[in-house]
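Methods, example record. To illustrate the input and output format used throughout this study, we show the complete record for Redox-sensing transcriptional repressor Rex. The sequence lines were provided to the predictor; the line carrying structure tokens was produced by it.
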Amino acid sequence: MATGRNHRPATRSRGIPEATVARLPLYLRALTALSERSVPTVSSEELAAAAGVNSAKLRKDFSYLGSYGTRGVGYDVEYLVYQISRELGLTQDWPVAIVGIGNLGAALANYGGFASRGFRVAALIDADPAMAGTPVAGIPVQHADDLDRIISENGVSIGVITTPPGAAQQVCDRLVAAGVTSILNFAPTVLSVPDGVDVRKVDLSIELQILAFHEQRKAGEEAASADSGPDPAAPPVRAATSSRKGPDGDMPAVMPA
Ligand SMILES: NC(=O)c1ccc[n+]([C@@H]2O[C@H](COP(=O)([O-])OP(=O)(O)OC[C@H]3O[C@@H](n4cnc5c(N)ncnc54)[C@H](O)[C@@H]3O)[C@@H](O)[C@H]2O)c1
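The corresponding predicted structure is encoded as:
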């Protein structure tokens, strides 16, 4: 378990571009589904379609892993699952602490998908004394006063912040001081962290705002085309608005801080 403050993921030191790292979980999700169906091999085109990624980009991404597939056969599904899991550091257990066990923190604690992906919810922490000792998802909530001890006792290197925004920076500082080097921030605030600490933020309202922008644009284009009648030279409305959002496109669902 790497818990040092200056720990950097091996992927970066091995020179894999950040955009490729962001697509690896998409490949892994598609490959895991194939593996569950006992599919032995997959072509780059099939896998690219399943992951929602362009196939040339997929082949380039896999070349960073040293994985080139076999002509006419494709990629070995099980081996790729192993390779990508290893590259992402998922072949080891990552104890995670969630801080702020309200609506969102409790929902995340109850989400079964983390454990199957190598993330074990090791501790739940909240500042509300009334919550101390109360089990959520079978794990007793611990008081925030004991944060340092909880982090070190559980070897936590990934902290999830689901507190109100006003508390997030202070919680972040305490997590970092306790040795946490990666933070997933759900609070709608920008966190400052020292070098060597990685922060990712998730904001569903930003994603919804981007969808609202596209909805508005589609509605405007439809109104304009209704006003002017059909124009054979105009591109189809769908084609103009179907830009992909995600690690293959321009707006990842989980953003660097
Ligand atoms: N990223 C997203 O898409 C998304 C979606 C929903 C909510 N949120 C954000 O997630 C956060 C939590 O939302 P919620 O609805 O669960 O709120 P909530 O009020 O239900 O829960 C917040 C919890 O944090 C605890 N808390 C407050 N200060 C603390 C501190 N210093 N240390 C430890 N615990 C502390 C509170 O006791 C409470 O239990 C908010 O910042 C909200 O804006 C983000």
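Annotations derived from this record:
The radius of gyration is 22 Å.
Strands lie at 41-42, 75-76, 94-99, 119-126, 135-136, 139-143, 158-161, 182-185, 198-202, 254-256.
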